[in-house]
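Just curious. Protein, please.
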Amino acid sequence: MAKTITEAREAYAWQLAGGTCSASLKCSAEQQVNRYTEAQTANQALELQTKQVLIQRGIPGREYVAYYAFARALARLCRKYSSKVLARAAGDLIDRWEFRGLEPEVLLAVRDAVFFIEDR
């Protein structure tokens, strides 16, 4: 069963306090836990939006993991690039995941519905 964000936050804080995960030198433990919580919340929202597109397109549940991985990779590109460079990088990413066997129409639908990236 998947953890809720609150459970994940508590587990991360416990691991951080116990030294089983590395603490950042740039910020306090509380700030690090808050950043972790924000990232988990954003990831959960990303997966929910992606899932809605996959349901609309009739994609079977066993293929969701690959599409989620595509969406996370695209989210990383969105944090790294902007404008035309982002559009080109997103196109390359779509080509890569199409080569891995995912449907290009669904990849484009995820790109358009979740990230609002224009064509290259």
Remarks:
- The chain has one domain: 5-115.
- Helices lie at 5-18, 29-57, 64-80, 83-99, 104-115.
- The longest helix spans residues 29-57.
